């Protein structure tokens, strides 16, 4: 494993606020092409907010967002999506009333044809092929996450942002999903993963960052020292 | 047999129109996420505009058609999307529903205002000069043939758009989850604009096709759509082929009923009400729920304090005393409705505000309260008043049973259907016997209503009736406030937030829903009886669905969760109507139009005006000196007006100016509050509900 190219996604000094209350106080984070970065931290730390800023869903109140060396601060979500940023949001990132096929159809915005996308998705996730006409909202949780993740596979993103992919899923399913994510990263995609439960994601991560109270107090390789750091932040004994 | 064929042809051609309109509904529902109550009203406006161009101004038919369908309808659709729907997009299904109710009310009022309802406006069918097409023993006019062809073409085109194009999929996706659609590079704004343009165009096609076969009447045309609603519900608001099938069923049924139903006093109403009955049945037979996306927001329900509610109840009675001493006899008659309509509006609070059940038949139930009181209390027998309330409550409980299977838009639709059934059939029945009990409703005319006997006094004068209504409104407001503060109120709100969670917490869904429907229907019945006393005679039209919509709208504007909404709604409904009434009869529709416009401003304060006013004036009430000063000024103004020392209007203006300036001072005085150090919050100034959150955010951030 290891970085293939230079920094692809770069957040520098990012601050963000909801209704005037600041929840991110200057976040610096870099993800290189082909690198998997795990962003860990307790509830309410601002992990989802960080991803939303990176995907253009939530505008930052200060700081810069660089994509492949280009300043894209303030770009809209749709434009960032077209330039290769793919966010799989928290919860099930699917359209519940659309069939599996129609959900996949919504992934054609990068220029691939509908057939190509369906073939790619069904090849990776054969279950989806069996359920192509079923409404996505009636799929099981794991199947819904597969469908959501299919967007990361089929739209050839440069940057993949994953928010709590493991939520509500069995450990076996999670391990399986993360294997797919590792495959994606090997193709040179910059992957930023947000997780509560570090174990599964640290198997595939090259780098880890801890986010607590809107700041990144620690980042480094995912080894023993990280475990010590994490437990202190989750248990609240850190300064 | 020939006759049967003839009826079939008629039925199929109406079915075609219902299919066009129904597919328009399905389109807006699947692509904009809105069940558009105003769909029929939009078609009605299109029909009127077409009449104006083609007949009124004698434009050539193709030019008039093109203008309406390609210019006016899309423009109206874009207007609806931009001005009405986009601001409430982020709120919720209920708010979007209210917007379409406001639009419906506004369209009817606008059409009546522009096109005098007392003039007949005949509209010729298309190709009227060609002779009919013979089909064996039956024949079909060219208009009918055109209608059917249009319906088939529309259905095919729509089906293709929705299921075979990426634009259609994008529209459906935007309804499910706008944010996610944005992440897939879709443009939810463009999707919304397209959805509304097409939806209104389809409504216009339907309106223009149906207008020549019925009278051009604003209310009639807008509600004709009930049949099309039924068709759309057959298709569960999403399937076009099933909608088509539904349209055929409804169209044929109506035609055969018209042809074969025996003629007596009881049945003609049934024929008119058949579409609504069928709608109710279809709603129950095809229950349907959208799979929920992630965005759903609920408005907070304000929590009144015991002292606050007492002050409020006191002010209601005080206001009544002021009114009866200041106003002339005639004015007292008209302003009495402030309090009786206030009780009816208050009935929305426990039902829609606390429990989240939208009912559009409250005024119809009030009508039941009024007639029951009118008949049983014909000589003012006091016992008849609780009986009227109980009977209204019983009807409410009856409505609750189907309501168990319905929620949200579907419940609103079901209660609207119920109101239409009452209007068109039940209220038009002559006296009849049920199990040996003689039941008389409006008796095909009007019913005289008198005031009650209270402790040996027969209350009949407008002054007495106004005071009675005010006292009862005050008591009802106190009761509803107590309900909100108590355990039951919290449970009802839990039910609103999640029925599943309510059930898992051990709540009994059936019992709770029946009870709250009965309670609010009882309130509505009481309000209806009071309203009837003030009107002295009541007719069915005063309590029909369309008359009830503005009251619902005002209650929403006031804030469905706030107890003050009752009084607010009464004032907001009666005062503008009275002020405009002095301008002439044409102004009646103008005031309805204003209410509709105000409803369209919902996005600016989704929790309602009443809580906002409460927040703005609470400071003044807490400031002892300023509050005493206010009371003094008000008392002075009242005295001057009551003794006719100054003109009433002048006194009112003076009182308002004084109150506003005192309030401005009160808010200025309270400004330094933020400077109080955190550790003194709750000591040097009262602890505010939002403080906890501010503190936890601040500690998390530090
Ligand atoms: N839409 C919003 N409006 C107001 N405050 C918000 C909003 N979204 C998040 N917040 C606040 O911002 C802070 C950070 O939230 P965020 O969702 O980013 O946390 P998180 O790290 O993803 O937590 P979790 O692990 O629980 O998902 C929290 O305190 C939260 O209450
Ligand atoms: Mg999160």
What descriptors fit this protein?
A: 239 residues; alpha/beta; Rossmann fold; 4-stranded antiparallel beta sheet; 10 strands; 27% strand; globular; B: mainly alpha; ABC transporter involved in vitamin B12 uptake, BtuC; 4 domains; two-stranded antiparallel sheet; 30 helices; binds adenosine-5'-triphosphate; binds magnesium ion
- Distinct ligand kinds: adenosine-5'-triphosphate, magnesium ion
Biggest chain pair contact, residues each? Answer: A-B, 36 and 26 residues
Number of strands of chain B: 8
At the first level of CATH, what is the class of the largest domain in chain B?
Answer: Mainly Alpha
Task: From the 3D structure, determine the CATH topology of the largest domain in chain A.
Answer: Rossmann fold
Rg calc of chain B: 27 Å
Outline of chain B: globular
Catalogue the unreliable spans of chain A: none
CATH topology of the largest domain in chain B: ABC transporter involved in vitamin B12 uptake, BtuC
Approximate strand percentage of chain A? 25-35%
Name of the CATH architecture of the largest domain in chain B: Orthogonal Bundle
- Could you say how many structural domains of chain A there are in total? 2
The first-level CATH class name of the largest domain in chain A: Alpha Beta
CA-based gyration radius of chain A: 17 Å
Indicate the structural class of chain B: mainly alpha
Structure description:
The complex is a heterodimer of chains A (239) and B (702). Helix content of chain A is 35%, strand content 27%. Chain A has 239 residues and is of the alpha/beta class. Chain A has 2 domains: 1-84 and 157-239, Rossmann fold (3-Layer(aba) Sandwich), CATH 3.40.50; 95-156. In chain A, strand 1 and strand 2 (21-32) form a beta hairpin. Chain A is globular and about 45 Å long. Chain B is mainly α and 702 residues long. Chain B folds into 4 domains: 1-32 and 224-288, no CATH class; 38-114 and 182-215, no CATH class; 306-602, Orthogonal Bundle (ABC transporter involved in vitamin B12 uptake, BtuC), CATH 1.10.3470; 630-668, no CATH class. Chain B has helices spanning 2-32, 39-56, 61-88, 93-114, 142-164, 166-176, 178-183, 188-210, 218-224, 226-234, 240-260, 267-285, 306-326, 329-335, 337-346, 348-354, 362-376, 384-403, 409-424, 462-485, 487-497, 499-504, 509-535, 545-558, 565-581, 587-600, 609-622, 624-642, 648-669, 691-701; strands spanning 133-135, 138-140, 432-434, 437-439, 447-448, 453-454, 457-458, 537-538. Chain B has a two-stranded antiparallel ribbon with strand order 1-2. A two-stranded antiparallel sheet of chain B has the order 3-4. The N and C termini of chain B lie far apart (86 Å). The chains are: A alpha/beta (239), B mainly alpha (702). The interface between A and B is medium-sized, with 36 and 26 residues.
